[in-house]
């Protein structure tokens, strides 16, 4: 396998970087929001992503009949990594999760209504799988959908719905057949977020960003807004989660933080002794660089496996998510240790070592090891799907 980029791919990166330089606005890009930068919503950030769409860079991997260019996944990966490196919005949910699922399983009506809007960045989505008693085991979700006329009435509660406070549409799973085995009685719905009966309440994370609880009280949804076949929702959710585990956890911000730590070690002193002469620190840095290379290559492995067609590669998505998010946390912990007490200074403090990123990532990176499925769940998936070990639950 060749891990170097081709001249065409490098040319594309150059074009993207020039475009980003031309749109370099601090209101749009902010690396200090870490991985959560992708879910910050402002009119300027929406307008910037619309420009990305005008360039034909949203939906690059979509088939031409749906407005895409049938391009290779590597270009989408390169674009997303470049956006993430600057702390900008990313192509995540609309193109990568909802759009791709609608293309594979949605009705003509849903395709016509949503796909062009996604490509023009005119619509934001929130994803509602988790509930107070259904997180890792999402198939245990209990949000009730009862038949009512030509549609369904939804009642119940979701939790941890990121983006619900600004999204336009809710991509939400509900139980349509309570008698069926738990994986076979769930359907996926699209519901406008301003529908009467939807209440959104904030949950603030230790990473200073907002996620939400969402309550649905007698929310009626027409059959037209059921995604794909009834009671097949969990199958679609599983495929979408494979995409989420890859697209929402980018590598470039981690590489950037490793550079900050390396530069700090090269120049800082502790008790009059240069850090670069400390054998323990040298060993830590060498190890972190080696692991960074593993994370980078696992990302490429997912991209190459995806380009072979069919469903998204499950175990590659889990390997990437598990290793990269745990690595990112180890890097944050090491940065905090190496910086000493000053590492607790925050990003806006001029004296903060590593521009305060050791403190911010110490908090933010924990979240990435939970959202999109916790590390333990990724290990279970790898054990079962890749190694053929029996199910443990
Ligand atoms: C910031 C943030 C944003 C999120 N955004 C969204 C969103 O937009 N939409 C959405 O639907 N969800 C979202 N989530 C929810 C996320 O997917 C869940 O938090 C996650 O799946 C874990 O579920 P839980 O919190 O209920 O923990 P639990 O499932 O209760 O797990 C608790 C602990 O037990 C471990 N565990 C559970 N089952 C097993 C097992 N079988 N084997 C070994 N260990 C196990 C877990 O790893 C974890 O350590 C978000 C979460 C966070 C933190």
Describe the secondary structure blueprint for this structure:
Blueprint (H helix, E strand, L loop, with lengths): L6 H16 L20 H12 L18 H13 L6 H14 L2 H12 L5 E4 L15 E5 L2 E8 L10 E7 L10 E7 L5 E7 L5 E13 L3 E2 L5 H15 L4 H16 L1 E2 L2 E2 L4 H28 L7 H26 L17 H12 L6 H12 L7
Helix pairs in contact: 1-3, 4-5, 4-6, 6-9, 7-8, 7-9, 8-9, 9-10, 9-11
Flavin-adenine dinucleotide binds next to β1 and α11.
Describe this structure in words.
With 393 residues, the chain is α+β, with helices and mostly antiparallel strands. It has three domains: 7-90, Butyryl-Coa Dehydrogenase, subunit A, domain 1 (Orthogonal Bundle); 126-231, Butyryl-CoA Dehydrogenase, subunit A, domain 2, CATH 2.40.110.10; 249-386, Up-down Bundle (Butyryl-CoA Dehydrogenase, subunit A, domain 3). The chain contains eleven helices and ten strands. It has helices at residues 7-22, 43-54, 73-85, 92-105, 108-119, 233-247, 252-267, 279-306, 314-339, 357-368, 375-386, and strands at residues 125-128, 144-148, 151-158, 169-175, 186-192, 198-204, 210-222, 226-227, 269-270, 273-274. The strands form three sheets. A four-stranded mixed β-sheet has the order 1-4-5-8. Strands 2-3-7-6 form a four-stranded antiparallel β-sheet, with no helix packed on it. The protein has a two-stranded antiparallel ribbon with strand order 9-10. Helix 1 packs parallel to helix 3 (73-85). The longest helix is centred in the C-terminal third of the chain and has 28 residues, at 279-306. The protein is globular, with a radius of gyration of 22 Å. The protein binds flavin-adenine dinucleotide (FAD). Residues 127-130, 135-136, 160-162, 205, 211, 367, 370-374, 376-377, 380, 393 line the site of flavin-adenine dinucleotide.
């Amino acid at each position: 396998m060749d891990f170097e980029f081709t001249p065409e791919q490098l040319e594309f990166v150059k074009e993207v970087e020039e475009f980003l330089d031309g749109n370099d606005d601090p209101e749009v890009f902010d690396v200090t929001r870490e991985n959560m930068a992708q879910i910050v919503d402002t009119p300027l950030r929406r307008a910037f992503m619309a420009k990305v769409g005008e360039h034909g860079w949203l939906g690059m991997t979509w088939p031409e009949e749906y407005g895409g260019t049938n391009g290779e996944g590597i270009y989408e990966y390169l674009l997303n990594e470049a956006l993430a490196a600057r702390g900008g919005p990313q192509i995540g949910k609309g193109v990568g999760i909802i759009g791709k699922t609608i293309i594979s399983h949605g009705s003509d009506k849903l395709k016509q209504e949503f796909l062009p809007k996604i490509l023009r960045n005119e619509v934001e989505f929130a994803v509602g799988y988790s509930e107070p008693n259904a997180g890792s085991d999402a198939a245990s979700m209990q949000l009730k959908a009862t038949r009512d006329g030509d549609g369904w009435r939804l009642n119940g509660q979701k939790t941890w719905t990121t983006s619900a406070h600004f999204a336009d549409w809710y991509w939400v799973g509900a139980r349509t057949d309570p008698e069926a085995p738990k994986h076979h009685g769930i359907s996926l719905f699209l519901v406008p977020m301003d529908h009467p009966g939807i209440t959104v309440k904030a949950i603030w994370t230790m990473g200073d960003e907002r996620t939400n609880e969402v309550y649905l009280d007698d929310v009626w949804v027409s059959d037209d807004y059921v995604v794909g076949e009834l009671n097949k929702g969990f199958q679609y959710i599983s495929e979408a989660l494979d995409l989420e585990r890859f697209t929402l956890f980018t590598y470039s911000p981690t590489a950037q933080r490793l550079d900050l730590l390396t530069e700090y070690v090269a120049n800082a002193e502790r008790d009059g002794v240069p850090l670069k002469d400390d054998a323990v620190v040298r060993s830590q840095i060498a190890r972190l660089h080696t692991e960074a290379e593993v994370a980078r290559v696992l990302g490429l492995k997912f991209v190459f496996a995806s380009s072979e067609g069919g469903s998204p590669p499950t175990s590659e998505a889990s390997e990437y998510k598990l290793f990269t998010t745990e690595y990112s946390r180890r890097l944050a912990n090491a940065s905090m240790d190496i910086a000493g007490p000053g590492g607790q200074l925050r990003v806006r403090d001029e004296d903060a070592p590593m521009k305060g990123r050791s403190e911010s990532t110490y908090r933010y990176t924990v979240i990435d090891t939970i959202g999109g499925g916790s590390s333990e769940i990724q290990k279970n998936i790898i054990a079962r799907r890749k190694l053929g070990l029996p199910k443990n639950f």
